[in-house]
Amino acid sequence: MEKVLLKNIDNPNSADINEYKRVGGYRSLPKAFEDKPQEITEMVKKSGLRGRGGAGFPVAMKWLFACADTKFPKYLLCNADEGEPGTFKDRPILEKNPHLLIEGMVISGYAIGAQYGYIYLRGEYPGAYHILNRAIAQAYENNLLGDNILGKGIKFHLVVHRGAGAYICGEETALIESLEGNKGQPRMRPPFPVNVGVFAKPTVVNNVETLSNIPLIIEIGGEEYSKIGSPDCPGLKLYCVSGYVEKPGVYELPMGTILRDIIYKHCGGIKDGKNLKAVIPGGITTPVLPPDKIDCPMDFVNMPKHGSMLGSGAVIVMDETVCLVRVCHRTLKFLEHESCGKCTPCREGTGWLRSILERIENGAGVEGDIELLLSVSGNMLGKTFCPLGDGAASVVQNYIKHFRNEFEEHIKNGECKYE
Amino acid sequence: MLSEAAIKELNEIRQKYPDASAALLPALYIAQREFGYLGADAYEAVSNALGVPKAIARGVGTFYAMYKHKPMGRHVVQLCTNVSCMILGAEKLSDFLKNKYGLEPGGTTPDKRFSLVIMECIGACGTAPAMLLNDDFYENLTEKYIEEILEKYK
């Protein structure tokens, strides 16, 4: 199938508005304006599109909740805080195809009645910041943003807001707090952002990839779109693959592509012909899978049935040379650093888990440490304010579940045998 | 004190939000650029410019990893060591920077040419190991390649 999200990105001028128009861009926007906003939402509902940020929430449902709220103005926020380690799927859209995102946002804003949009961009993408600002300026010049878009009396303004290095801001309520100029700590729900979001107004937060699917849905219609990929979770998906594969990178494939095929068919298999040891399928906080568990369709519905999650579609492939205790420790070190400190189980738990893992990896583990890890993580699960703490606990439990012998070896031998 | 140009820039940014405090993150970036890092003077300037209490500005500034709280070298090496980069050798590169340039994580070379910041994922996992040097991405790093890159930054 012809690429949609990654269309034309090998062209060095792909981020330019004229280049985007040349390959068919900005044709969905006038088409969308011919319909009523409710009809657009209906089309998105038929498409079956789910949010691509990690949670997989049905997009049209979020939109309908925001539409039903009578407070104005409404806001559309694009979550471009792509921070889940292993994830680099939004970066090519932001850097190479920014007008696709802008077109998607203007249409989405029209559908939900939002006249103001912000792109919350992670601070670690300085290049994308300049590219997006240039693209937005071009869109204003071409009357594709502003008070009277295409002379149709439709208003939508768009601003890029730079984050400053905080993983937790990928969580939508923390993102909203951060956009308001606060520490990025998640908010209690309810009220949900669709009712009381940024600046206390109804707010829809959608991921970059989600919004970039909207122009295609307008172009081919919801029903056609729903025929792409998995029947119960349709559409296009960007899978970003890193680690020990021959051809790492971002792959645009139908949702529900089998994980084994992504690794062996699309990415050319394991690097240097080594043996596969483990795969993280959706970013480092999703449950790790052993080699015999990778015949699973990579979508939001099927991955939980196979013991993991689609997450952000960030596949990290590890061969036999990788020490998984070390990877588990590094993951917890990250989560300890990124815990916002708001709730005790996460703030304290991530630190203790990291500390126990550290001594195991350094050869100072003692008998009972594995049970201690399970006990600490068990006391975190389901008791933290947001998914960060749950993620930390489940990471530890899943490494132990599938690779307990590695932990035991470290403790028994008093060393890490890997380089 | 912020420069006149910075105040003007900040006023323009301020117009993009319905609420002055929403301009705090951009304002802290501006102050960091002007002062080199966020110290007492920088927080005071931001607080005065936006009407946000100093304690709030400092609380927010210290929450986010990309705001610096001590003087940095002329060029900031931001090396990722998260999982995808780690399994492909990022920690060895960190050791290399230490041994070859005396550049410790969080430290600055005596000639103030480079500072090293260890980053969490920078979204370059498919081309790991990777780093940002100031605002530029460098990917598929090796020791030799790092030497060549650093040569370009005087």
Describe this protein's structure.
The complex is a heterodimer of chains A (419) and B (154). Chain A has 15 helices and 11 strands. Chain A has 3 domains: 17-227, 3-Layer(aba) Sandwich (Rossmann fold), CATH 3.40.50; 233-319, Ubiquitin-like (UB roll) (Roll), CATH 3.10.20.600; 324-413, de novo design (two linked rop proteins), CATH 1.20.1440. In chain A, helix 3 packs antiparallel against helix 4 and helix 13 packs parallel to helix 15. With 419 residues, chain A is α/β, with parallel strands linked by helices. The radius of gyration of chain A is 22 Å and the shape is globular. Chain A is 42% helix and 15% strand. Chain B is of the alpha+beta class and 154 residues long. Chain B folds into 2 domains: 4-63; 75-151, Glutaredoxin (3-Layer(aba) Sandwich). In chain B, 45% of the residues lie in helices and 12% in strands. A 4-stranded mixed β-sheet of chain B has the order 2-1-3-4, with no helix packed on it. In chain B, strand 3 (131-133) and strand 4 form a beta hairpin. The longest helix of chain B is centred in the first third of the chain and has 12 residues, at 24-35. Classes of the chains: A alpha/beta (419), B alpha+beta (154).
Index terms:
heterodimer, A: 419 residues, Rossmann fold, Ubiquitin-like (UB roll), de novo design (two linked rop proteins), 3 domains, 42% helix, B: 154 residues, alpha+beta, Glutaredoxin, 7 helices
Name of the level-1 CATH class of the largest domain in chain A: Alpha Beta
The oligomerization state is heterodimer
What is the count of β-strands of chain A?
11
Question: Could you state the CATH homologous superfamily of the largest domain in chain A?
Answer: NADH-ubiquinone oxidoreductase 51kDa subunit
- Count of helical stretches of chain B: 7
How many independent structural domains of chain B?
2
Instruction: Give the overall form of chain A.
Output: globular
List SSEs of chain B in N-to-C order.
Answer: HHHHEHHEEEH
Largest sheet of chain B: 4 strands, mixed
CATH topology of the largest domain in chain B: Glutaredoxin
Measure the end-to-end span of chain A.
Answer: 43 Å
Query: What percentage of residues of chain A falls in helices of 4 or more residues?
Result: 40-55%
Structural class of chain B: alpha+beta
CATH architecture of the largest domain in chain A: 3-Layer(aba) Sandwich
Most extensive interface: A-B, 53 and 42 residues
Task: Tell me the helix content of chain B.
Answer: 40-55%
Distance between the termini of chain B: 29 Å
